[in-house]
Amino acid sequence: MHTTFAGKRIVVGVTGSIAAFKVAGWVSNLTKEEARVAVIMTDSACRFIAPLTFAAISGERVHTGLFAEEGAEAIPHIQLAREADLLLIAPATAHTIARLAHGLADDLLACTALATRAKVLVCPAMNSQMYRHPAVQENIEKLKGYGYQVLAPEDGRMACKEEGPGRLPEWESVREVMLQILTDPDLAGEKILITAGPTREPLDPARFLSNRSSGKMGYSLARTARRRGAEVTLISGPTALPMPPGVLCVRVETAHEMYEAVLAHCQQASVIIKAAAVSDFRPAMQFADKVKKEQAELRLPLEQTTDILKELGRLKKKAGFLLVGFAAESKNHAAEGEKKLKNKNLDLIAINDIGSAHTGFAADTNQVTLLDKDGVSQLPLVTKEQTADLIWDHVVTMRGNR
Question: Which among 242, 332, 335, 400 is placed 20 to 30 Å from 125, CA to CA?
Answer without folding.
Answer: 242
